[in-house]
Design brief:
Elements (H helix, E strand, L loop, with lengths): L1 E2 L6 E4 L10 E4 L35 H11 L5 H8 L3 H13 L3 E6 L2 E6 L15 H9 L2
Antiparallel strand pairs: 1-2, 2-3, 4-5
Amino acid sequence: MRSVKGRRNLHIETQASHEGGMASRKAGARAGGRGRSGRDRPQRRIPVPAPDPQPPGWTFLTNHAHVLLCLAEKPQPPLRDVARLVGITERSVQRIVADLEAGGYLVREREGRRNRYEVRRTLPLRHPIEQHRQVGDLIDMVLAR
């Protein structure tokens, strides 16, 4: 039996040593889940989420708007939850919150170990096309259920 260079736990049996004359491969991980030590290794299963039937390629609202809406609905959320809802990283949510604070759209108040966010609903939307509307109008339209 000889080992293939660069491959861990992969052995090739030569034709002379194998019955039937065919070369076969035996990987240590596939042989009953045993490695070099001969002990059983626990099989790790990675959960795979079900594929979305139609993943959106784009949305009408930006991530900034999505984060603002999340904070308007729940003013004291963990940013990890906001990131999960919006579908971006927690670091991206932190940057967006900093942008919204710098623009005056959010006011952050520290309450113990957590932050509480207040959305300033009377400020106009930023783009010239929608500047005639206020942030509160967007929030009311989207969150009205």
